[in-house]
């Protein structure tokens, strides 16, 4: 029984440590400004680039 509880508490401690590091990493990514895309980098879509598909009626 003590072996089970020891393993359980060790795993819970590891889980708590990983959770703390994960939350801190997410906070740092949230604070950083988002890089804006310039208008010239957006791709232009021409009518000949559109893929036309034909569907057949199911029997």
Description:
- The protein is mainly α and 59 residues long.
- The chain starts with a helix and ends in a 28-residue tail after the last helix.
- The chain has one helix and no strands.
- The radius of gyration is 26 Å and the shape is elongated.
The low-confidence parts are none
Q: How does the helix and strand content classify structurally?
A: mainly alpha
What is the share of helical residues? 40-55%
Proportion in β-strands: under 5%
Strand-and-helix sequence, N→C? H
Number of strands: 0
How far is the N terminus from the C terminus? Answer: 64 Å
**Describe the biggest sheet?**
none
Mean of residue pLDDT?
75
Radius of gyration over C-alpha positions, nearest whole angstrom:
26 Å
Helical segment count: 1
Shape: elongated
Summary, kept brief:
This protein has 1 helix and no strands.
Topology of helices and strands:
Elements: H1 2-31
Question: Which features does this protein show?
Answer:
59 residues, mainly alpha, 51% helix
């Amino acid at each position: 029984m003590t072996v089970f509880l020891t393993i359980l508490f060790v795993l819970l401690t590891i889980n708590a440590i990983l959770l703390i590091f994960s939350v801190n990493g997410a906070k740092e990514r949230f604070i950083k400004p988002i890089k804006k895309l310039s208008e010239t980098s957006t791709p232009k879509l021409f009518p000949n680039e559109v893929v036309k598909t034909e569907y057949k009626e199911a029997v």
